[in-house]
Amino acid sequence: MRNCRVGSLRMENVMKSEKNNGFTLVELMVGMVLGLILIAAVVTVYLSSSKTNRTSQGVLNANSNIQFAIDLLKDDFARAGWANNTSLAYSLSSPLSSDYVNFDGGAGSDTIKIQYESCDNSDSDNKCLTSGIDSTDCNGVAVSGGDIITNVYSVNANKELICNNQVLISNVESFQVLYGQVTATGIEYVIASNISDPSRVHSIRFGLIVSSDINTADKKVSKSIQLLDKTITSNDQKVKLKYESTVVVLNKPFTSNFGI
Question: For the whole prediction, is pTM greater than 0.85?
């Protein structure tokens, strides 16, 4: 009886020892593989979320910049050629300065130089203000009533859209301008150097490409964007936003052969 009891105890000890040995090598490897798969999934989700966040932030930043510029340009271009009631036909002889032919940017960004009179409210028909936007240039500098306000828009070497040398927005990849002039067959949009008669400019069409100020892509991406009459190329990691608009020049000189 004692031998049987001893044998039974030894068998139980062996079984307990086997149960306390822990995981086998195969079980450990399976666990490690599952853990790596889980970690890879978490990292993938994180990277995707981070990229989406960068892209959204870049679009938001570029969009806020471009909306500010567009609103300013549209409002100012609409004033081009305006004159007080004391002037013939309530408009200047041209909405553009006399040196307009020099402002085509070629392969680069264009420049535009518009002009209109500062408000003189001595005549109630003028319906303008002698303070604020009716009597100041694009930088808020006051101009005496009846004098000419001249605003020059261009892009500098730092990719900043400027007006009269003051920065408006940054990260501007391109600024293009076309002029709609009235012809015998309709309205033709041309570059500044191809304007035949500035008094026949009916509208101003302009476009902007603005990039984000942060990198949003994992690597450089080549892009080709058509902006009015130009194809703009880039190779970087930034978001690009394009905007184009046309503003009718309401203060056109009145002539019998204007045709519209």
Answer: no
